[in-house]
Amino acid sequence: MTNEHDLSHEDEVSTGARVAARPAADEPLDWRSRISAALLVAVAVSLVTLLLTVVRLNETDVTGQRMPLQTLGLTFDFYVIPSLVLVVFLTIAGWFGAFRTWFTGALAALLSAIGSAILGYALRVLVGGTVELTGEVWGIIAQQVFGLFFPFLVYATLLGALLAPWLERRILEAERAALGHGRQARGFVPMPDEGKIALVRIPADSMADAELTHQERAEIDMDLANEQWEHYVELLERYGWSTREVAAAPTMADSVFVEDHVVVLDGVAIATRAGVDSRRAELPGVRAALELEDVVIAELDAPATLDGGDVLVVDDTVYVGASSRTNADGIRQLRAIAGELGYRTVAVPIEGALHLKTVATALPDGTVVAWPEAFEGALPFPRVIAAEERTGASILPLDAETVAVAASAPKTAKQLERLGYRVETLDVSEFEKAEGGLTCLSARIV
């Protein structure tokens, strides 16, 4: 059911900034990769600018008293400080994405070269210590920008337009390839003890109106639901998760199921596009919370639909449920983004279940716990065990040795204890009435 608050946000969600399945210069990479690429480009452009300028201006003194090699050294010495300043300016410009096109690259390089010429010349005067930086001296320095420094400006601008964009693309492509190969090489990565973040959202007062697909509506006790939610958050925090509360949305019935709005892969938070219209107004609040974290945000474009509850990541594989909430366009766009990060994507047809992760989740060692009756055909997972109960297939890893299991699945809890795991049981009965499970109640950033 769509209310007025939902409609007021629909345009915002559908027309917001997109970073979809198209290739991007730096968005799949973290800030360290982007700044290192910007620095390498800046050093290359500055060095070539310096060398070309020195060669162009290296002429024998008219008195004939200096040999060309001596003149070369003096010319190099004159331009080396402005070139070092140019490295700093170009690094900043590259960090802000100036080298994505030839035009912005040329403009950024020209402005950086002008600033470097003025500041570098001034620093040279200060280092010399024989002249004060008076207004008259600053005027002389400004005049030399298009005098002695004219070749410097020309070469920097041309290199900013031609060399910088090409070089940045090559560096970032190499970074992405290395990221992918690294993930494929290391395979299973254990859950860390620190740096675990979980987004949570308090249940809406209207949760009784939540969207249902595969089960009959049952009365929800909101007092009990709020109590169960508090216990859920306490359990996360007890096992080292830092919880971030997304702004409450009292009129959005399904908003407590925050997992459906984001999929996180290697520092890239993919903001999804909900499979039912009434849930799309929930996204802005989740996106605002993501913007406070150290992640790169990507989004899916219409007509794609994808719920985060349909996405299960095991080692270097992303399993995505082909459910009533996730369509083919959503799977294609997720596959493209995941592929850029070195993951392969496997689509999994499911039936009789809302989401993939209501019938299949992974233990900390990568083994999948599944409810086989919800799948069409053979299970696609290389390591899988069958849950004793249907709700037992939705488990929540808390650390490398501990998992949470719904209180409605005591046989599965015993089953996992026999495998050597410490098991925490949690009553989520009121959320199960809204087709939710343990994983649905948080979006985890590891």
TrEMBL record:
The keyword Hydrolase applies. Keywords: Hydrolase, Membrane, Transmembrane, Transmembrane helix. This is Arginine deiminase family protein. Gene3D superfamilies: L-arginine/glycine Amidinotransferase, Chain A. Belongs to the DDAH family. The chain crosses the membrane at residues 35-55, 76-96, 102-124, 145-167. It comes from Pseudoclavibacter albus. Signal peptide: none annotated. InterPro entries: DDAH-like.
